[in-house]
Amino acid sequence: MPKIYTWDQLFSRRQFIKGGVAAAALGAAAGSGLLHPKPGLGDARSTVASTLSGTKYVYTICEQCVWRCGVIARVENGVVRKLEGNPDHPNNAGKLCPRGNAGIETLYSPSRVKFPLIRAGARGSGLWRRASWDEALTYTAEQMKKIKDKYGAKAMIFNSTDNLSQPFFETLLKAYGTPNYGTQRSLCFNSMTTGFLYTYGVAQPGTDYANCNYMIFSGRNLAEGISNIETQEMIDMVARGAKVVVLDPRFTKTAAKAEWLPIRPGTDLAFFLALINVLVNEKLYDAKFVSQYTQGFDELTKEVATYTPQWAEVQTEIPAGTIRRIAREFAASAPAAIAHPNWRTSNFLNSFQAERAIAVLNALAGNWAKPGGLIPDQSINTAKLGTLPHPSYPAAVGMRLDGVPWQFPMVPLAYGVLQVMRDNILTGKPYQAKGWLISRQNPVLSIPERQKTINAIMKLDFIGVIDIMANDTAYYADVILPESSYLERYDGLVPIGDEIFIRQPVIKPLYDTKSSLMIYKELAVKLGLGDFLPYQDEKDLLVQELKPYTVSLEELERKGHYRVPNFKEDHSKDFAFQTSSGKIEIASGIMAQMGKKAVPTWEAPPKPGPDEFYLLTGKTAQHSQMFTQDNRWLLEIFPENKAWLHTTVAKKLGVKTDDMVIIESEVGKIRIKVYVTEGIRPDSVFMVGGFGHVSKGLHFAYGRGASDSALHKSLADPISGSSALSQTFVRVSKA
Amino acid sequence: MHTEVTWGLLIVVYLFTAGVSAGAMVASNAAFLLGGDRYERVARWGAYLAPFPIAFGTGVLLLDLGSPLNFYHLFMTLQYKSPMSWGSWAILLFTLLSLLYLYLWLPPRYQVGHVIKRVRAWKGGLAKGMPILAVSVASYTGVLLNAADRPLWQIALLPELFLVSAMSTGVAAVGVAVALSRRWRASHEEKLSLALVDIVLVGIELLIFGAMMIDSQIGTLNQQLAYAVLWTGSYAAAFWIMIMILGLVVPLILKIVEVRGRLPWKWNEWVGLGSSLLVLVGGFFVRYVITYAGQMTGWLR
Amino acid sequence: MTVRMGFVIITSRCIDCDACMVACRAENEVPIGFTRNWVTDSGAVGKFPIVKQMFEPGNCMHCEKPSCLSVCPTGATYKRADGIVLVDDTKCIGCKYCIEACPYDARFLNPVTGKADKCTFCLQRLEQGLKPACVQTCLGKARHSGDLNDPESVVSKLLNRYPARQLSPDAGTRPNIYYIDVPVAEIPSGT
Ligand SMILES: Nc1nc2c(c(=O)[nH]1)N[C@H]1C(S)=C(S)[C@@H](COP(=O)(O)OP(=O)(O)OC[C@H]3O[C@@H](n4cnc5c(=O)[nH]c(N)nc54)[C@H](O)[C@@H]3O)O[C@H]1N2
Ligand SMILES: Nc1nc2c(c(=O)[nH]1)N[C@H]1C(S)=C(S)[C@@H](COP(=O)(O)OP(=O)(O)OC[C@H]3O[C@@H](n4cnc5c(=O)[nH]c(N)nc54)[C@H](O)[C@@H]3O)O[C@H]1N2
Ligand code: SF4
Ligand code: SF4
Ligand code: SF4
Ligand code: SF4
Ligand code: SF4
Ligand SMILES: [Mo]
């Protein structure tokens, strides 16, 4: 009879020292320190001393968020002491954001899952037993085979959020043969990517900050939604005296450096339509560029005729004069002027239209491939890695649970609609899903309507999670396959431009964990699909990826990156737009085909009722998504989220900063502390997402702050599939 | 920005006890030099009391140190700019000499050898010298805070305030002792004199606070804000109730009642004892409020 | 000319990301609950929709006339010839006098060592020719350090070109952090 542990026992230091392998890996010196933890910081790292000696510096890549900055790790006697930005890395130019600096605490966190776990009580009961890797993988493979045999491969869902080894996860899912793949995209940037894809044929054009003189962000908050080098470039741009305009219903730290326009939520579309109106009416657009590279301008002219600044003022609550001024200023700076494509623009169901309007505005400015403008697709100018041979994939049979394309014909297959997939686990339509394998994603907290996600999990026969810690989704899983943290493992190589970067272990794994590369591989073997991931170990894989080049893996490891010699940038295709017309589609061919208005058009967003507020969500510079709220170093600088209320609203409710309020939506209710500020529209409430964890396996995050995902309604834009995170209205009362 | 209390109750106790010891010592010295045998009980009790509060306070201070085992470094150097450095030397010297002084006041059977013969001379010598040391110790507690760069602690009258308060608590402590003692109970005259001295000291303390209030109207903005913490801020309740009313005004009235002697004898006894205890309480709160409130005050940026 | 180590902080370039605080914690093993550096946030000042917000990073100012030094009873706190103010742990008794005396609240009692702790200018890094951890990681290039007396240093060049202020000059310690509030388009190169 195997011993059964609760989370508390599992994550007490005593327990993991009992785990033979882990203890052995830690060495004798660790034992006493771990049994008698010192308070505060660095208990693990200052006691985990190994017999290795000396200081070494190891190049690797950060994974505290999805941005992939270059890191140099200082390792002393086998203990990681300091992470520093790699000055030669284009993503961060030597600097790490707070989360990147706090990677050491992620590595040594007591909340790490230290060996494979198999559920030993009801789902979510927190009862587990320790398993060997062989047992855990065999169990996972058996469950997956059982589902495939009984219900077909389609009954199994695979989920993963952007990461370096994601291509190999995708290989596994294709080999398994399911059509059901869930990424974070529809919660994140589907509006932007589809909006630009259908206009330029490029999903994510770059932005040339260095030469840009006029930037309009709508919701994009680079000071807090950090994209390291881009954030640096934004700051440089402001410092240079270039104009930056921020549309956001709340005063962000980016807005603090710019002209802030507290736009009414959901009406960015009206703002941009009005800018287009002014550019068209006052003939401020780049006529030559428009006639040469675009199609549909006449249709646009007709459509925007009524979208005057006066009209937009009513929608946006931004004065018509301001809108007109910005339109003129923007045009005057063109082509070194950009309406930023933004990122997580999943605010309203009309966000796709807003992104289309933004894309079109940029076309009118003629800023494509010009200094200070939008930068065409860079993927063709990126070094190509060697690929691995594999047998042909089986056909993925069955409709997709996320409704693509049968319900969402315009959502690219690769993007998917995650929230609908979750809903259809619950509805059982078009068929009942039975299993879910999740790697590096925390859907319990990231998909709107948290309770629904938990219910969906409860309905399944099997759920397996690959994570580094006992996060919420892992807490409800049947099996947790613990990945080594990013400082302990290899991942697939990263080409950026003419360079190739490597993530490599800076220390040996502290615990009985594996890289996801090996987890996928070994799982594939157990499933009888080993041929699809043809590598012996990580190094073998990397050597194959490096095949086209002369550099050895050892050299790459030593230097951290490799520059492909004589790499020629190819700009011949910059103006070969991958749209149906081959032009920038101001009037979208696909939209027309689908019987929709082909040019950007006004869609009125819903408004909150009396006594209701818009609920806004967003990032804070100090945390990543639904992940780092357990990191003590980051909790030091951002301990919990609070609900922002405008001063007048707080006064009416009779609350002060740090008083408790109850926030209620149609789907949920939370209690949270208040932050009173002049920096938010009186009709809005703002919360940083990612707090309010439900996993008791998180030592420091459990019970901290509250989750807006518990309040968010599940919505999906019929065109882009984008979630609409600001389209939930809430009531607020004093607790 | 500074919200945490770095110096807490232990330091308050230290400051308070040092003051009581210094005050008791000065009371004893004065009684011995000026009053002779008529004030013998006051002199004796002052001598008996003096070493202990400060020794206790020093012990408490050690507890407050981050590295108590390192404390000897205090006496490896003299940092003349640091009040704590010379203050520590002064306290060490004071404690040692006050023990000697106490020894001289012990009944002869506890004394050894021929010291006895010269006791009076020694006593006299010490009684003349100790007040200087006592005054240093008492004002040191004020200078200590004075030197820490905080607006409230930089009030010019702080050392004076602490000195007078130290004296009044010392006198009050002796007053309590001589009122309760069986063997060396104070004479009516002694009590009356102690009460009169306390009246004068408490009066001066009130004057100092008055001067501070005027100062608070004319000082820099930093100082005005600092004073406001006392007058109207988060320590206002403690200041007005524990210091001004219970610690100064009430005992002042009671002492006056005691001195005028219109009450029945037994009552007068209690009035005297009660008012002395209140002076002690008030003196404690002077340290408490200034120490805590001072840490809340900072410089405008 | 003697070396005078100090900092120049460009508030207009700070985004309050706090990377500098985490970097310092890692580099100097600062215990949880304490910090050697900080970034103050004014919050939204003004009335909606006309508001402003200022971020002001800071750390020990390595003052010319440090009050922490003059009050130290053991001589544990000392100022090096290059102006860096340090604590000699072997002498420190943890009396916290210096913590009280510092007008910038730059010090704390380290519960692990029992000694007064504060910014050391990352001396261990300077000795290796590196910039302090907080300066090195600063996303906004808001924090700069160097010899204020060396005309070739970044800090001197910045001070030559832009108006600067010090914090709480009233406190009288003559701090060696200078604040520039105006936009600084380009960071001059220098030592
Ligand atoms: N520190 C940190 N950086 C991150 C991340 C992180 O978790 N932490 N995550 C990364 C990821 S995955 C992403 S997608 C990006 C996201 O980065 P961004 O897209 O820049 O940021 P968000 O914080 O998601 O949302 C931005 C803002 O949208 C505003 N908003 C809400 N509704 C509306 C509206 O209707 N109109 C307008 N104009 N504004 C509105 C919110 O108030 C919020 O301030 O950040 C990336 N960088
Ligand atoms: N309320 C609200 N909801 C949102 C958003 C919001 O702003 N507010 N933002 C949306 C956006 S933009 C996005 S992109 C999504 C993100 O949604 P998700 O992708 O679901 O969220 P993450 O927090 O990025 O999930 C990362 C998971 O990976 C785990 N992890 C961390 N490092 C590793 C590792 O090295 N290996 C493995 N195997 N696992 C690891 C973490 O513990 C965590 O469980 O959320 C969306 N949902
Ligand atoms: S932006 Fe920050 S967390 Fe993300 S990869 Fe870069 S340093 Fe790491
Ligand atoms: S800032 Fe404070 S700790 Fe630093 S030198 Fe000045 S007085 Fe001393
Ligand atoms: S705590 Fe240490 S450094 Fe500070 S004053 Fe006391 S002895 Fe000096
Ligand atoms: S110089 Fe070093 S010790 Fe000082 S605040 Fe910066 S990182 Fe911390
Ligand atoms: S790292 Fe730089 S930009 Fe970020 S908070 Fe610190 S000083 Fe400001
Ligand atoms: Mo995202």
Task: Note down, in words, how this protein is organized.
The complex is a heterotrimer of chains A (735), B (301) and C (191). Chain A has 735 residues and is α/β, with parallel strands linked by helices. Chain A has four domains: 4-107, ADC-like domains (N-terminal domain of TfIIb), CATH 2.20.25.90; 132-187 and 383-460 and 484-563, Rossmann fold, CATH 3.40.50.740; 190-378, Dimethylsulfoxide Reductase, domain 2 (3-Layer(aba) Sandwich); 613-734, Beta Barrel (Barwin-like endoglucanases), CATH 2.40.40.20. Chain A is 32% helix and 16% strand. Chain A has 28 helices and 28 strands. In chain A, helix 11 (190-200) crosses helix 18 and helix 13 crosses helix 17. Chain A is globular, with a radius of gyration of 26 Å. Chain B has 301 residues and is mainly alpha-helical. Helices cover 76% and strands 0% of the residues of chain B. Chain B has ten helices and no strands. In chain B, helix 1 crosses helix 6 (158-180), helix 2 (40-49) packs across helix 6 and helix 9 (236-260) packs antiparallel against helix 10 (265-296). The radius of gyration of chain B is 20 Å and the shape is globular. The mean pLDDT of chain B is 91. Chain C is of the alpha+beta class and 191 residues long. Chain C has one domain: Alpha-Beta Plaits (2-Layer Sandwich). Helix content of chain C is 19%, strand content 23%. Chain C has helices spanning 19-28, 67-71, 97-101, 123-126, 133-137, 154-161; strands at residues 5-10, 37-41, 45-47, 50-52, 55-59, 77-79, 85-87, 108-110, 115-117, 143-147, 177-180. The relative contact order of chain C is 0.25. The interface between A and C is large, with 56 and 43 residues. One iron/sulfur cluster binds next to helix 2 of chain C.
Précis, in short:
The complex is a heterotrimer of chains A (735), B (301) and C (191). Chain A is of the alpha/beta class and 735 residues long.
Number of strands of chain A: 28
Count of spatially separate domains of chain B: 1
Range of helix content of chain B: over 70%
Radius of gyration of chain B, in Å, reads 20 Å
Distance between the termini of chain B: 11 Å
Order of helices and strands of chain B: HHHHHHHHHH
Q: Which class best fits the helix and strand makeup of chain B?
A: mainly alpha
Strand order of the largest sheet of chain A: 1-6-5-18-17-16-7-8
Q: Unreliable runs of chain A, pLDDT <50, ≥5 residues?
A: 13-52
Number of domains of chain A: 4
The name of the CATH topology of the largest domain in chain A is Rossmann fold
SS field, number of helical segments of chain B = 10
Q: What ligands can be seen in this structure? A: ligand MGD, iron/sulfur cluster, molybdenum atom
Derived from helix and strand composition plus strand pairing, the structural class of chain A reads: alpha/beta
Low-confidence region ranges of chain B: none
Strand content of chain A: 15-25%
